[in-house]
Amino acid sequence: MLRLLTVLLVLVACGSWGSQGDGHTLSIRIPPILHLEVKELGLRVDALAPHPPLILGEGHYTVRVVANTAWTLTLEGPPHLAQTLEGRGRLEVAVTVPPGAEVRLVLRPKG
Questions:
Q1: Do residues 35 and 67 make contact, with C-beta atoms less than 8 angstroms apart?
Q2: Is the pTM of this model over 0.85?
Q3: What does the CA dihedral 50, 56, 60, 64 come to, rounded to 10 degrees?
Q4: Residues 6+ apart with CB under 8 A from 60
Q5: How many Å apart are CA 40 and CA 103, to the nearest integer?
Q6: Which residues, 6 or more positions from 66, have their beta carbon under 8 angstroms from its beta carbon?
Q7: How far, in Å, are 34, 45, 60, 67, 96 from residue 1 at the CA level?
Q8: Edge-to-edge strand order for the sheet containing 70-76?
Q9: Taking every pair of C-alpha atoms in the chain, what is the biggest distance, in angstroms?
Q10: Residue 7: enclosing H or E segment and its boundaries?
């Protein structure tokens, strides 16, 4: 994906140098990307598509947000784990769910 984007940018740059002054414009719209990954489960959820909250049971997890847009990640569960994180781009968080507890993860685009 990154290679394709690089090739497109080079083509646009070369085309714009050769056509300066002819009044043509070219724009590229990069679609938003927002994924939630749980490394230990090998799970990847597209947060832009409708889906139920991800529920984690007892254990240690590495939760990763992969995005090119602003996002809000909500962890719902025991008071010491419940929190809301906001950001843009990537984030990796270690989550430890104690025995008998559950944590719900909800990732949404911000705004």
A1: yes
A2: no
A3: 10
A4: 40, 94, 95, 96, 97
A5: 15
A6: 33, 34, 35, 37, 90
A7: 15, 18, 31, 14, 33
A8: 54-56, 103-109, 70-76, 83-88
A9: 68
A10: helix 2-18
pLDDT for 75-100, tens place per residue?
999 998 899 999 999 999 999 999 99
As a 3-state breakdown, the chain gives helix, strand, coil percent values, each rounded to 5, of 20, 45, 40
96 membership: H or E segment, kind and range: strand 91-97
| Helix or strand (DSSP H, E) at 14 | helix 2-18
Distance CA(11)–CA(28), nearest Å, equals 12
Q: Assign residue 84 a region: left if phi > 0, alpha if psi is -120 to 50, beta otherwise? A: beta
46: tokens are: 């597209």
Joined together, the tokens standing for residue 79 give 């008071």
Please name the residue that has the structure tokens 């769910």.
97
Summarize pLDDT for 6-47 with one digit per residue, the tens.
655 665 555 555 545 566 788 888 889 999 999 999 999 999
